[in-house]
Design brief:
Elements: E1 10-12, E2 18-20, E3 24-25, H1 29-42, E4 46-48, H2 56-66, E5 74-76, H3 90-107, H4 129-139, H5 190-207
Parallel strand pairs: 3-4, 4-5
Antiparallel strand pairs: 1-2
Helix pairs in contact: 1-2, 3-4
GO biological process, one term: secondary metabolite biosynthetic process
Cofactor: FAD
GO molecular function: flavin adenine dinucleotide binding; oxidoreductase activity, acting on CH-OH group of donors
């Protein structure tokens, strides 16, 4: 049976906008323009990037040279409008303060005496909680490995997506990244995300009658 999934298959968001289901993710500056240009000529209409990559000019040049009207291309650049609520609870600040102290103790071990030649950050020069907390408040930021922000619904509670990774209340829209994990685990995210991606590829193929 032929597949209904094509390069311009779209899903309708609650806002009314239609988002191409398939897109090209761009990152490295030197590769952004040729990659985008090739993708647009192939038929892609969704370019996924981020302002922090600094490749707006390359993406823009690719769009201009492609000759495709800008109104037909969906480009994501800006960060989502969310508040991560860093340090909003005392427990967060206490945990990070103890982590900095542990790093101090580790770096002070005799084994590193001839290797560590100078402090790296201002927090290295203070052991007082107030000084460490001030450093944390100034430096805290995401490491871009968030998870669980669009969790799978479980018996323990509701979620953003169901067991097929489909967004509740939307049609045909799946989330396939670390945000779907219902719990935080003590491991690097890469391997589990690969597993979710493999599962998603199976689900999408099955939904569109593509041979498995």
């Amino acid at each position: 049976m032929s597949s209904s999934l094509v390069i311009d298959t779209r899903v309708r968001l609650r806002s009314g906008y239609e988002l191409p289901l398939l897109g090209l993710g761009v990152y490295l500056n030197n590769d952004a323009k040729p990659a985008c240009l090739a993708a647009l000529k192939t038929g892609y209409r969704h370019i996924d990037s981020a302002r922090m990559y600094g490749n707006e000019a390359q993406v823009g040049e690719a769009v201009r040279e492609s000759g495709i009207p800008r109104s037909q291309i969906y480009i994501t650049f800006d960060a989502p409008l969310i508040d991560p609520a860093f340090l909003q609870t005392r427990a967060d600040l206490t945990t990070l303060t103890e982590a900095v102290k542990a790093a101090h103790r580790f770096a002070a071990a005799p084994a590193w005496r001839d290797i560590i030649i100078a402090p790296f950050a201002a927090a290295a020069n203070t052991t007082a909680d107030a000084g460490i907390e001030a450093y944390i408040a100034e430096q805290v930021a995401t490491f871009r490995h968030p998870m669980g922000t669009a969790r799978i619904a479980t018996a323990e509670g509701p979620g953003v997506v169901d067991s097929s990774l489909l967004v509740e209340g939307a049609v045909g829209l799946r989330v396939v990244d670390a945000s779907v994990f219902p719990h935080i685990f003590g491991a690097h995210l890469q391997a589990p995300v690969y597993a979710i991606a493999e599962r998603a590829s199976y689900l999408i193929k099955r939904a569109h009658n593509i041979p498995l």
